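User: Good morning. I'm curious how zinc ion would be positioned relative to this chain. Could you predict the structure with it bound?
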Amino acid sequence: MNFELKSLTPAQAAQLPADALLVALPDSLPKAMAASPDALSRLAAQALADIDPGAGQALSCYRVNGIKAPRVVLVRAGDGSAAAVRKAVAAGTAALRQNGIERLALVLSLLPDDAAAVRMAVQACADASYAFTTTKPSAKPRALKRVTVGVTDTAAVRAGFEVGKALVTGVEFAKEWANRPGNHATPSHLADAAKALGRQPGIKVDVLGPKQVAALGMGAFMAVAQGSAEPLRFIVMHYNGGAKGDAPVVLVGKGITFDSGGISIKPAPEMDEMKFDMGGAASVLGTFAALAELKPAINVVGLIPSCENMPDGLAVKPGDVVRSMSGQTIEILNTDAEGRLILCDALTYAARFKPRAVVDIATLTGACVIALGAVRTGLFSPSDELAAALQKAGDTAGDLAWRMPLDDDYAEGLKSSFADMGNVAGRAAGAVTAAKFLQKFASELNWAHLDIAGTAWKSGAAKGSTGRPVPLLLQFILDQAQAGPTRKAARKPRA
Ligand code: BES
Ligand code: MN
Ligand code: ZN
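Assistant: Good morning! Here's the predicted structure, ligand included:
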């Protein structure tokens, strides 16, 4: 799917040779428009009174006199805010989905110029027309080939448009990999996907296998992988858009390509959804795909510990004690709390980059789904500054997060008689105790944790990856780039 940005008046949109026009309507049209002689302005002015006012309410028209495109969908876009435009474009694109439209014009010219709205329109159009076809030959592929976004072309609008396009690349990369079944997205497959990204200018990828991970002493990560016939992979990605000595942002993505629970096996219903347990990894890959396109001036490192969590004669058992790369020992009381075990070693590894910030992204706990549902990602950080930056990035990108607590009292339940810590702490506040576990490996880092268990995919009839939190992560990185470089520091700044 190709997007192009074009300055389009309503009169010019009416003459555009497209299969369909999707026209976003503001709550009130400029007075001049009602009197304007062109067919599209007239239609919009007349239709406004006949469409319910809620953003996303639509009216479909066919072969309107004076409009070249055979189909016109008029859709209410409320106050023209990014959130309202998102709803409008999503509804309008869905309404046109059945018609095999190849050439669409998204007419935003009736709205006030707004870079954030243009960016969101591009994303919403891609989102509503997305189709996963890799393992379903009978699926109807996306028909859309060319989308013209009609606006008043200004530098700010164009910048928003470019970010929107890069986000489509990133989100769709993440969706593709997260949606692939476990047997089509093994740790080795993920490593190959990363290597393919590594062929783009500015990106470098190294993949470590079992021997190298053993040499690093990643005993927690290895313990999870040992029950699977698929060899683990530790993927290390570099995006170098900044100067050589600039401290990078490090993203750490949980890459469990299937989580059966291991010996602490999960119940059968919905276990298939545990193929999405590499959603954090997919979001890191997707963010790198977007970085390759946008090329911001900043350094970013992506770390993906990837393996399966399986039960087996050789699998790790409840009660086993392992030694993490940090030297801290862990009693594995529940083999289903595996995400924190692979992440803790990756966090220890992250310190070598002397990062300005480390953000881990993980489908970590069912408890986070209970706490926040599918609306907001759980955000944890001991740093008010980093938490605020991530929250703000999510707000800007329409990819929301909510800060959760990290009081030390929550770590009480992690105490163990046989190791420095246990890997679980009972049912209460499960999302927080998981974060407290990770925090024990991040004491030297300016660290935040995103629990995306509720937001990374949708269940039910429309089951599939959302591509979240690629928009939040990319926005965070762009904001950091904007703030300017920081030199590599030996330790995290004091809070
Ligand atoms: N991948 C799961 C978390 C998960 C569960 C995400 C359901 C989305 C939906 C994770 O590895 C896990 O199994 N967590 C356990 C932790 C528990 C054993 C402390 C959980 O949430 O039940
Ligand atoms: Mn698990
Ligand atoms: Zn898991």
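The first strand starts at residue 2 and ends at 7. The mean pLDDT is 96.
Let me know if you'd like a different ligand tried.
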